[in-house]
Amino acid sequence: MKSVGIIGGGGYVAGELLRLLVHHPGVELAFVRSKSQAGKPVYATHADLLGETDLRFSADAGHADVLFLCTGHGRSATWMKENKPSADTLVVDLSTDHRMSEDWVYGLPEVNRARTRDAKRVANPGCFATAIQLGLLPLVKAGLADGEVHINGMTGSTGAGQHPTATTHFSWRNNNVSIYKAFTHQHLHEIGRTVTQLGRPTTDGLNFLPHRGPFARGIFVSTYVKTEATQEELDRIFREFYVDAAFTHVTEKNPDLKQVVNTNKGVVHVEKHGDKALVVSMIDNLLKGASGQAVQNMNLALGLEEWAGLGLKASYF
């Protein structure tokens, strides 16, 4: 039984992670660090854990075989430098800090499962990056996405974190839609790295329009490229790409977001329209886009069953 610690335990992602780890058959929680919540019961912040655990937040980090970094972007790298965890400690960073580092495995199991096994440093992909890549990478590997790629994506309000802002509080977000960071979203960097590794000649031409959606959780992405491939060829490409995937499923039916909310699934659908291939891909941003994928990566790195602890139950959100 491996011991697990969480650094930065007060936010949405940490709450989802705790919900998964409390009942995980292969690990036990050693500590949850949160300076702002130190001394309080975990369920005082994450209300859905009432009756699930009596663990309290701690001000300091203790010993653990596995560390999950749920700190804000920029703070994970600082924490690593200041605390220097052992090289034998498995560290899974859910922030953006190490996603471009050659010293960390980029933890997208659909392409890096083999590298993640026995890894000690894993950078969890971003939520939008995960949803986009699940739809795009089969095309890239087949050489069908070397030109212009057009991507539209919509994310729920939990993707912006727990602290309310002008564009996340209920009265603004409800019944409302807006575009942000057009063509400049930070997840394009990690997407670009993966697509070039799979053979795309350049990172140019990845056109991404992110949208804020009027819902709490989930990411819905539509991607299209010009191609001469037939529907039959596209179906074969996607099914072969995901033949061994534990959580990503290809469907022939046009899917909807509720199929993935509160699950660690990725759902992908491809269809041909004239000279274009349209791909719909979707995930839950807090699970497959964050905590669920982090547990999936931990399972791979520890040699556990990939789906261990990911038989999910309803979340508070």
The number of distinct β-strands equals: 14
- So how many helices? 9
* Global geometry: globular
Which architecture of the largest domain would the CATH scheme give at its second level?
A: 2-Layer Sandwich
The poorly predicted ranges are: none
User: What order do the strands of the largest sheet run in, or round the barrel if closed?
Assistant: 3-2-1-4-5-7-6
Q: Give the C-alpha Rg.
A: 19 Å
In the CATH hierarchy, what is the superfamily of the largest domain? Dihydrodipicolinate Reductase, domain 2
Q: Main β-sheet: number of strands, strand sense, barrel status?
A: 7 strands, parallel
The string of secondary-structure elements, in order, is: EHEHEEHEEHEHEHEHEEHEEEH
Structure in words:
This protein has 317 residues and is α/β, with parallel strands linked by helices. It has 2 domains: 2-124 and 290-302, NAD(P)-binding Rossmann-like Domain (Rossmann fold, 3-Layer(aba) Sandwich), CATH 3.40.50.720; 127-283, 2-Layer Sandwich (Dihydrodipicolinate Reductase, domain 2), CATH 3.30.360. Helix content is 26%, strand content 22%. It is built from 9 helices and 14 strands. It has helices at residues 12-21, 42-45, 75-83, 109-116, 127-141, 170-173, 187-197, 231-241, 291-302; strands at residues 2-7, 27-33, 57-58, 66-69, 90-93, 105-106, 121-123, 149-155, 178-179, 206-212, 219-226, 248-250, 266-273, 276-283. The strands form 2 sheets. It has a 7-stranded parallel sheet, with helices on one face. A 7-stranded mixed sheet has the order 9-10-8-11-14-13-12. Strand 1, helix 1 and strand 2 (27-33) form a beta-alpha-beta unit. Helix 1 crosses helix 9 and helix 5 runs parallel beside helix 7. The chain is globular and about 60 Å long. The protein starts with a strand and ends in a 15-residue tail after the last helix. The mean pLDDT is 94.
